[in-house]
Amino acid sequence: MGNSPSASAADDSVAIGKPTRHAPWLRQLEEEARRMTHPLLQVIHWEYPPALDTAGLVQQSTVASPTTTSPNNGLGSTHTRVLDPRLFETLPPIPAASGSSSNAQRSSSRHTPRSNSYLRAPMRRETAENALETLRKFDTVIIVDDSKSMSGPLWKEASNALAALAQTAGDYDTDGIDVHFLNDERVGRGLKNARDVNRLFNSVRPGGISLIGEKLEELLLQYLDMIEAAKDSGDPATLKAIKPTNFIVITDGVPTDDPESVIVNAAKRLDARGFPLSQLGIQFVQIGQSPKATEFLQELDNGLAATHGIRDIVDTTPFIGGDLTSEVLTKILLGGINRRVDTKGAGAVM
Which of 279, 278, 219, 286 is nearest to 249 (CA)? Predict the structure, then answer.
């Protein structure tokens, strides 16, 4: 340890702690600390930040209370100290990665904090699952565009997207999810797995026009009337028993009616009655790559709140085929009900 410990002992602001790791050089440091004689030094617990940046080592320092017989009576209670980085100048380097014997690489590991980005990859699935826990508080309603323009490859893509969303949402929505179509009158209620959703989807054939506004209005009016009646009842338990709702619309393009007015009116009603911002959200999942459709959906996502002075209840996410990653699933399932996910992507909660 050289002169570092004794030099530090003269500094009343430094305390040495008991390491939580058991590397030889840390055990050595502990023994050095035990041999120090400064009256303020305590052998206590210390912690590392994720990147093992010893220059920023943070410890919890416990100073003796007035009831003890320690020489530092009356100095206070538990508080946080940051160790002087000079204490670590003589420590052995952190071992280099397996398979490397470069002295320069070992030396570099002493002074350059490791990025914690390497922790994100293996935890991605787990953190996605944690983020999706919020879905347990919501009812999930999926609306599928079954208009004629969805025929062919787009219908297959819609099937893939729906199955993935239904499986994931069904894992968290204890009531199961509901699935509606724009034109077909069949409705799936309380579906809890991809198999049941696929069975329903395969019974429907695309045809007709894209009446997204009409279907949204039908479902939104039912829900808004219900929560307003519950609020008017004066019984908080009645309103609390109604879950917030997460609407997800799977579509390929520009509708043939006016969903914008429907969404604006719904947002105004929510604002007028002071419902929570997370009471209702709408996510549009674009199937296909129509520039016209992209422009329209982005206007719903980014333009309505500023233009009409209303809360933002819309998000939109493109589906480009293939398997849905955990990030895309999180974006789709939370973007309509979480403004951070809407504006910053799934990484905001993962």
Answer: 286
Residues ≥6 apart with Cβ < 8 Å to 268: 308, 310
Token pair, residue 91, equals: 């420590």
> What's this model's pTM, rounded to 2 decimal places?
0.64
Long-range CB pairs of 308-311, under 8 A, 24+ apart, other chains included: 308/264, 308/267, 308/268, 310/264, 310/267, 310/268, 310/271, 311/267, 311/270, 311/271, 311/277
Give me the pLDDT at residue 326, please: 82
Q: What pLDDT digit, counting tens, does each position of 83-138 carry?
A: 444 444 444 444 444 444 444 444 333 333 333 332 233 335 556 678 889 899 99
> Among 250, 186, 262, 176, which residue's Cα sits nearest to residue 221?
262
Question: Do 251 and 285 form a contact (C-beta atoms < 8 A)?
Answer: yes
Q: Are 57 and 44 in contact (CB under 8 A)?
A: no
Which domains are present in the chain?
4-114 (no CATH), 124-348 (3.40.50.410)
Q: In sequence order, what are the beta bridge partners of 60?
A: 80
